[in-house]
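HOLO CASE FILE
Compound: 2'-O-acetyl adenosine-5-diphosphoribose
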Amino acid sequence: MTQIKRIVILTGAGISAESGIDTFRAAGGLWEQHRVEDVATPEGFARNPDLVLGFYDMRRAALAHVAPNPAHAALARLQGEFAGDVLLVTQNVDDLHERGGSRQVLHMHGELKSALCLACEARSPWHAPMLDRPPCPVCAAPSLRPDVVWFGEMPYEMGRIYQALETCDLFVSIGTSGAVYPAAGFVEEARRAGARTLELNLEPSEGSHRFDESRLGPASVLVPAWVEEVLTTTS
Ligand code: OAD
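Model generated. Tokens follow.
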């Protein structure tokens, strides 16, 4: 542990589960309640924009009723106190890492609290519903969509993420099923770079066998303990 200088962390829905946000693939999770093709593809949006805007309006509004948990706070602590580099990449579109104190977060699947204008392509901070077709703050066109990455679209910040994976010594995956690429392939990239790989998840994930080590349990317990371990063994 003393040699670690560069850490890349990938988080998924599991880190926000104990805050009260539904994961995607659990029994009763979001993808059992809604069809992916309807609410998370460009084709679904073209077919029924009201359904899609309403789905993300509901998820954005729900953020007002949840709070970060000790796992989010622990990662913010690590970012603040670790002597080397920590790149925090999340697949989550919630804002719990930021509200937990993290300053630098790469949202590779976008953010609920951001709007993308289909007319001028501007991205704007966004906190209100979109179902009533509000004007874009930049060009005034009533052409906003949620600034989230749908299936068939390119995730954000991939250049920066792969660059960090190529030079990291430790890759840690937290609360993600390993079911969706390209994020599910990050562990292989990190391994190719010679990094140690660690998974922190409630249960074995689809990609567990690719990690050097898997620790099983709730993120609110595992993540603060792991952060404490890193900070005490590298200081
Ligand atoms: P999933 O719902 O696929 O997986 C969540 C993972 O978190 C599972 O492996 C759970 O076992 C684990 N988990 C649940 N509760 C936990 C807890 N308290 N502590 C630790 N782990 C826990 O969610 P993601 O892997 O994030 O993409 O899904 C990846 C992508 O698929 C999402 O970003 C979304 C979705 O379709 C898009 O919409 C583009």
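CASE NOTES: The two ends are 10 Å apart (CA to CA). The pocket of 2'-O-acetyl adenosine-5-diphosphoribose is lined by residues 12-14, 17-18, 23-26, 29, 40, 91, 109, 149, 151, 175-177, 179-180, 201-203, 205, 218-219 (CB under 6 Å).
CLOSED: yes
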